[in-house]
Write a structure and sequence with these properties.
The chain is of the alpha+beta class. It is built from 4 helices and 9 strands, in the order H-H-E-H-E-E-E-E-E-E-E-E-H. Strand 3 and strand 4 form a beta hairpin.
């Protein structure tokens, strides 16, 4: 009888990551090769995100505001809720059809599409815009006393991102990380965030959009109404692209929903998305950073 341990180590891609592949409009033949995967009952939390019953109907309601009149990016002062991606097909970030991508980066993206070995599948943090494309949503919390905004990502890595709004600048020597170093400021109801110091260990989206440590992003978060958060992104990476480019997605709020415990390593039903065209994957590095 074959030892089951290598298979257990290899199949870490959970149902939520599979859902992302479906939501992002992945074409047949890219990684999953059209394989149909069934999820047994109980494979998803009954009150989890993407529950149509928690989506508001009727005309949009105005965005909640703080005592000083500025729109709140998180929930209201009395209700909990998460932000989930709205329509994301065919391009999850609304990026230009033709990107100013360098040849080596284009070849890398093509390889990633054929071999779906995304770090998100191994429970690694999702930097940049990728965190907003996961089907289990994110929670945004603004702490005015500390002058920081937190983005909590529970769909896999159990991590959070910090955006400093206290007027500081970027440090001179930044140790590259998944989330980089983010500083933000308010322009009316819009939080503008400048981020540098990314590592190269994550994908920007499900299509395998590459980047280098030269990456710099400019994000704009605008609460349009109670249920809509507009996310605009400018990507500037001279190491992988010949010019900056922008994208936009409207996140939808799901009320009366909160983050829940998520165990990234259990109950995988999409092992082919972990090995691509290969028969195995190197597991000598730690799964969780």
């Amino acid at each position: 009888m074959r030892n089951p341990r290598p298979l257990t180590a290899a199949v870490l891609f959970l149902v939520p990551a599979l859902t992302v592949a479906i939501v992002a409009g992945q074409e047949p033949g890219q990684g999953n090769r059209g394989v149909q995967v069934s999820v047994p009952e109980g494979g998803r939390a009954p009150a989890g995100p993407a529950n149509p019953a928690n989506r508001r109907t009727g005309p949009p309601m105005p965005a909640p505001r703080s005592a000083d009149g500025r729109a709140l990016l998180g929930g209201t002062t009395t209700q909990k809720g998460l932000w989930l991606p709205g329509p994301v097909i065919p391009n999850p970030l609304g990026l230009p059809a033709e990107l100013p991508i360098q040849p080596w980066a284009k070849a890398l993206q093509a390889n990633r599409r054929q071999n779906q070995l995304e770090p998100h599948a191994r429970c690694k943090p999702s930097g940049g815009a990728r965190v907003f494309l996961t089907p289990y949503g994110v929670e945004i919390v603004e702490n005015r006393e500390l002058q920081r905004v937190y983005v909590f990502d529970e769909g896999g890595p159990h991590t959070f991102r910090t955006i400093y709004t206290d007027g500081r600048t970027h440090p001179r020597n930044i140790q590259p990380s998944y989330y980089g170093h983010s500083i933000g400021w308010w322009e009316g109801d819009t939080l503008v965030v400048d981020t540098v110091g990314f590592n190269e260990a994550f994908w920007f989206d499900r299509s395998g959009l590459p980047h280098t440590e030269q990456l710099r992003t400019l994000e704009r978060f605008t609460r349009i109404d109670l249920d809509t958060l507009r996310y605009e992104l400018t990507i500037d990476d001279p190491g992988a692209y010949t010019a900056p480019f922008t994208g936009r997605i409207d996140l939808r709020r799901e009320e009366d929903t909160e983050l829940f415990e998520y165990v990234c390593q259990q109950a995988n039903y999409a092992h082919e998305l972990m090995v691509g065209e290969a028969t195995s994957v190197d597991r000598t590095s730690p799964i969780v950073p």
